[in-house]
């Protein structure tokens, strides 16, 4: 099953794709087999478009103040209403999409790349392994949000620092995962054979090890992406995240929380966008895991 | 078994050492000179230098780290820059609400999530199963504070069943204590329930597909007995593991939940400390929670040996 | 019985004992305007600290609702006809919370500490020949120049307040915070229950010697009907509002204006303007650090500043709650003047401001804006200012922090890069801005002035003229000069005049209008 799905996700021959009927059948089959990938992917694509094309979607300057038109309920002009400083919540939420996606994707990429590097290194070099894994143990023993809070307290609030702070909390699980894959592959006959044949280490890693870590790491990365989005919103909400003048969903909610009883829409819209986005990424992750790693899927 | 337990306990020492090193570096690297803060704004540079020397701030990193570690081991977590109170005292003042919230949340989450997961596995593929899975994915995706506000709005303000905020000490009675913590516990528990229900369902499915369960089924052993005796017993290990791992999320969630419901706990303390950049407080709370987390996971590992004596490190 | 109580009653088996309920009437739960992070209303000038300190410490004199000083700890006084010698006699039987008697030694030590920090105190110190004890109950000021406003100085309600502490505490360096909270006021401060950021507890002082007169503001008998006053600091305004609606707290000092309509609909809640003298919003510049050490930078901000923007952001949509006021003084009071305030009136001139900044070579200059995010008023002011500064071409460094930290940081004269600041926001109670005497923020004495350290000899001379004014007309002329010169030098930028509500449960009676919460005389059924 693993190989067939890989076949679909990898670029197929043009000749296979061209006949329209067959193609529709394949897509239909794919949706049928992996409904969560389809739904999650579609939702995420829509949200991505919203983020990228935010300036074209009838938005105004999301930071423009106008206290004279403050706390308007959603109406024809201000679709999601205005906040307590008269800023357009619709524009803020749409632009906020960018922050969430940037943070989510960047953390996933940074944590995966760093985690893979550390995992590969400690999987292959015994002397490094003992020390690095103890450090990872230590890092993992600090609850994620607290670690991020502590790191944010050290630096100035900025999107880059939020990304780094959250990524640090996600590196240990990735490196652990990669290390375990490496350790199991090292015992495989074909790797042992390659070593015996005198193939150089980097070649072994690139040819045999790396491809096998890609599937589990990409599944993990999706979940990291979802959790990073939630963490960013949480950090911003408690005042330790993105600087308050940048419209991120967490910041909009933090702004609106004083009024949640009388003007619930200020919190509602960013909350809904955040939840749907995280849901989409989680669905995608679930689906990818089922598709790429049935063994793992059964376990969790 | 005892040998394993002792080895496992010893293994936590280097971990705690690394945590301590990291937490100490936090204060070491923190911007702002503690000597200048203590000296006050009327002080001359010479005064600051004198205070710096008297505090021993001019000594090397390692010396200071070891001294700090010694103090921590003696229960001295330093003094808050902001209130001038000892951090250990501030944490002690606020530990009860946080512990209460966590205990209640865990109790609540386990008593809901495990039956949910079992039922979902039993009715695999049926609508109950799907509903449980949908609830589980939602629980993952909605931030704790949003759940908190929705609950507070509905059950406290509209229906007036529970208080909106605050904390009643357990000494005032079990009823008021639970009453005051019910909404926060549900809010905090939502993500945990999601995680736990999924894991329970997955492990139950695996157990139910094992040969001996099939044999039992074939022998005509009744469904419920299979589920709760064979199934749950064997699913206990992964479930306990997840409770240990999920504890980190619980701690993070408590920080936010305490802010939403104005619970005077350690989480509120750290959130207030962020805005003030009160590093000793942040440091103390991070250290304390990490310690709790390590201990919980140690406990979980030791529990394994009870559930499944075959497990070896 | 509400369902909520029913549930808790059932769960507890037996509900709380009846005694506990009866005790509820002896405990007042109060939500203050901000977190109480320190307890020194002489070294610090935050209103929230002052409000707490007024329960714990007593004053020699105390102003009534007409701001007339009345004897409080003093039995009476004697002033020489030339107003150079002032002799005071303490009431008998005054005691501190630790049981010690209040003597003139305590009074003199307390006044000496206060005179260093307070503007009126500095004025007394400047003409002081001696402050001496005649015996344990009588003490005397000997001045080398007359000082007519002595009683007001000793009895005024704005910080630094001339609070009387035991000598050992009063010996604390005036620039360091006291660390022992023993006074002779009607309430004792319970240090062991103090959880900064969450709770502060005051307990009735049994040995307090109540004056026989009716209590009014700081004057007369301070009768406490509560054994405990608990200050509860909520995490945000929404939580405070919800708690008040549910009866979990009794009195909320500064309800968020946006929640006022909601609270008004609740029959169990009373709302009223807390103080008709209102408040004046303040954008405070640091006059020592660039770019605002250049008066052109300060004036550029004034040219573009729209008070309407600030006021709507601060108090919301209700136009009855605010007005524009091109003045440093309280609108609606006898001596009000807006002389020289043209720069705040009419169309706002963003381009003019930019041009002025360009001339000064300050376009793109970095401004460190320190904003207390936990106080709704300062948060709103800060966000409007950030927008304004960006529009006129400054590079804004928005430092989000809490009110306690602003209080500490604003005392630093260092450059912003070394922990100093360029702008912070606050507000001044209208009661403190009726004339220059109680008005700390108006002083332009440079290094000795209030945070921001504005320096203008013209303003200082006009203030001195007001003190020496022989009649009302001369006082008025002096005030006009102060206002004009203060705008010229831009001591600070007034962001408008606004009124605030206070809200309390309807079973609480005796809440009065005042520029600070008056706890004596309040009862709960």
Q: List how many beta strands of chain C DSSP finds.
A: 21
Query: Roughly how many Å is the radius of gyration of chain C?
Result: 24 Å
Whole-angstrom Rg of chain B: 24 Å
The tally of structural domains of chain C comes to: 3
What is the CATH domain class of the largest domain in chain C? Alpha Beta
Our measurement of the CA-to-CA distance between the termini of chain C, rounded to an integer number of angstroms, reads: 17 Å
Mean pLDDT of chain B: 82
Strand order of the largest sheet of chain C: 8-9-10-1-11-19-12
Polypeptide structure, described:
The complex is a heterotrimer of chains A (300), B (313) and C (525). With 300 residues, chain A is mostly helical. Chain A has one domain (30-59, 72-292): Orthogonal Bundle (MetI-like fold). Chain A has helices spanning 2-9, 14-17, 20-33, 35-52, 89-124, 126-140, 144-154, 159-186, 189-196, 201-237, 249-256, 265-292, 294-299. In chain A, helix 10 packs antiparallel against helix 12. Chain A is elongated and about 75 Å long. The model of chain A is unreliable at 1-22 (pLDDT under 50). By secondary structure, chain B is mainly alpha-helical. Chain B is built from twelve helices and no strands. In chain B, helix 5 packs across helix 8, helix 10 packs parallel to helix 11 (266-276) and helix 10 runs antiparallel to helix 12 (279-307). The radius of gyration of chain B is 24 Å and the shape is globular. Chain B starts with a helix and ends in a 6-residue tail after the last helix. The mean pLDDT of chain B is 82. By secondary structure, chain C is an alpha+beta fold. Chain C has three domains: 3-36 and 183-276 and 501-524, D-Maltodextrin-Binding Protein, domain 2 (3-Layer(aba) Sandwich), CATH 3.40.190.10; 63-112 and 119-167, Dipeptide-binding Protein, Domain 1 (Dipeptide-binding Protein, domain 1), CATH 3.90.76; 279-498, Dipeptide-binding Protein, domain 3, CATH 3.10.105.10. Helices cover 30% and strands 19% of the residues of chain C. Chain C has a seven-stranded mixed β-sheet with strand order 8-9-10-1-11-19-12. A six-stranded mixed β-sheet of chain C has the order 14-18-13-17-15-16, sandwiched between helices. Chain C has a four-stranded antiparallel β-sheet with strand order 4-5-7-6. In chain C, strand 6 (128-133) and strand 7 (138-143) form a beta hairpin. In chain C, helix 4 (104-117) packs across helix 5 (119-126) and helix 10 (295-304) packs antiparallel against helix 12. The radius of gyration of chain C is 24 Å and the shape is globular. Chains in contact: A-B, A-C, B-C. At the A-B interface, helix 6, helix 7, helix 10 and helix 12 of A face helix 1, helix 6, helix 7, helix 8 and helix 10 of B.
